[in-house]
Amino acid sequence: MFSGSEILALALKEKIEAIGVDVVMKDNIQSARLAGFGSSGSAVELFVQETEFSKVNPVIEEFRLSI
What we know:
Elements: E1 2-4, H1 6-18, E2 24-27, H2 28-35, E3 44-47, H3 53-66
Antiparallel strand pairs: 1-3, 2-3
């Protein structure tokens, strides 16, 4: 549902968790570093349950307009 820098992902994750929705964060840079190679592109991805998306979507849109 979102991919971007770690700083932006953490800020959005905090806002989503504030409304009571669990977020899964996948950090591709950390994964690549542990595997011994670098990564490029969107470094961090956030995921929520599909059933929670309608609850989370207004928070995501507000966040995107604020950055």
